[in-house]
Specification:
The protein is mainly alpha-helical. The chain has four helices and no strands.
Length: about 140
């Protein structure tokens, strides 16, 4: 039995869904999109919520959702609407690039010392990016 009814094993080989087939070329496009989006959004993030800022509340939550969503959408669009575990990882790396870029632009080094809000912001953005590209 297959998704479309009874077929013999020769006529109906098991294949993954087309949107989950990610070639190396597609993966590189996703990496490029994720990296560029991470760099740009990280620079913007450093201006809106620099390291050490606390008490941003609901506004910060909205920004975190937006960051994750935009990075995942950049990956999704650049890979011809593909999704799946490989692209989820690439999008999460894009969020990491955004966090590190934010810290560097703000002059904090790669990892800011006392930046609980930034850590929470990055985790929320990573979860949103991951879920956005689930299959």
């Amino acid at each position: 039995m297959t998704d479309v009814g009874a077929r013999c094993p020769d006529c109906a080989p098991s294949r993954p869904l087309p949107q989950l087939e990610v070639s190396p070329k597609i993966a590189l496009r996703g990496i490029a999109a994720s990296g560029v989006a991470g760099l740009v959004l990280g620079a913007i993030w450093s201006v809106i919520v620099p390291p050490g800022v606390t008490g941003i509340g609901f506004f910060g939550l909205i920004l975190a959702f937006g960051l994750g969503y935009v990075i995942a959408t950049a990956v999704y669009e650049s890979t011809n609407h593909k999704s799946g575990p490989i692209l989820q990882g690439i999008a999460v790396l894009g969020v990491a690039v955004a966090y590190l870029t934010r810290n560097l632009v703000a002059g904090e080094g790669l990892i800011a010392g006392d930046d609980t809000v930034g850590y929470i912001f990055a985790v929320i953005a990573a979860v949103i990016a991951f879920v956005r590209l689930r299959y």
